[in-house]
């Protein structure tokens, strides 16, 4: 049994891993750079709710309270994570940022600004959405308006009366565009490079997440084929509005890292014309944004819902454990190197909270087994 185990990050993935370890008798220390648990959730936009169900989002050893409802609100996610850390009596050191991991003589060295610590095992849970990414569009410096990453968006109040161009149609871009359109923006466009797959978040009691779980282990080609009639039954043809059924199938896109948009109102907004879909930005030209079809828009604000980087390179890049797009090669609770684990770096159709809970249990088993 390893004596010293560090978990890096006190988001849901790190807390789940620490709790699962504790249930196996390993009292890990969580190192968290911020002053809070669930730091990322404290900064998400106000209207955000989990799009995965309460029951399928709970972490090991503590259900999410029933009174939080089926689709748990952002503030309640934070409350749950605080209660989770307290319930499991997790040892968390705040204000400690890990800058590098090294392995020598069968042990890990965890480097922080305050010094080095030795560890038998380390769980990296620093987040899939670690560092906001804004593309470097040509001419951007000439733009007099604001370019704001979606991670800084809280609510529509600052954008009332403004022309806003949202870039990117993942779940975040889709919901922010809807939020702006419903709450007083003068105009809302959404620039889309690759048409997203769109599924209703739920149809009555049936959540999209349930379908995701059912089809998860089916062959990719079969799910790709099945998703087309499901889309046609769920939504009218939206091709003329810029949202065609994507050529690349749903499961193939998920395997590439793009989960479908869980619709809670974007489709209606696009149909109503309150959100207008446009092609991607090619460049900025002073106050104008030139799109890839040559059209020009004059937004006051460009809201970049353009994703995040993992930013794992400085910490573990030298260990040969990172692959495509800086993501860990080995996940799912298996050791990436002896005593080194990553959790929270896969984005399956079945939901990340659920995946992090499963990872946590596997990591705990492997750590106890000395792997
Ligand atoms: C807008 C949005 C909505 C989402 N909705 C859902 C949903 O409905 N259902 C679902 O299953 N998933 C959802 N997700 C995906 C995922 O569940 C969340 O992003 C979740 O917070 C990921 O948890 P995590 O612990 O892996 O990472 P994070 O929550 O990002 O936590 C990482 C923690 O590590 C800390 N940290 C980072 N680097 C260091 C370091 N070097 N040293 C020390 N500490 C460090 C950070 O401060 C942070 O507290 C959503 C994601 C986003 C962005």
Automatic annotation (TrEMBL):
Q: Does the keyword Nucleotide-binding apply?
A: no
* Keywords, sorted A to Z: Monooxygenase, Oxidoreductase
GO CC terms: cytosol
Pfam families in alphabetical order: Pyr_redox_3 (PF13738)
Q: Which GO terms describe its molecular function?
A: flavin adenine dinucleotide binding; monooxygenase activity; NADP binding
Report the domain of life of the source organism: Bacteria
Write down the InterPro entries for this protein, in alphabetical order: Auxin_biosynth/cation_transpt (IPR050982), FAD/NAD-bd_sf (IPR036188), Flavin_mOase (IPR000960)
Q: Does the keyword GTP-binding apply?
A: no
Q: Which PANTHER family match?
A: FLAVIN-BINDING MONOOXYGENASE-LIKE PROTEIN (AFU_ORTHOLOGUE AFUA_4G09220), FLAVIN-CONTAINING MONOOXYGENASE
Supply the name of the protein.
Monooxygenase
Origin species, per record, is Promicromonospora soli
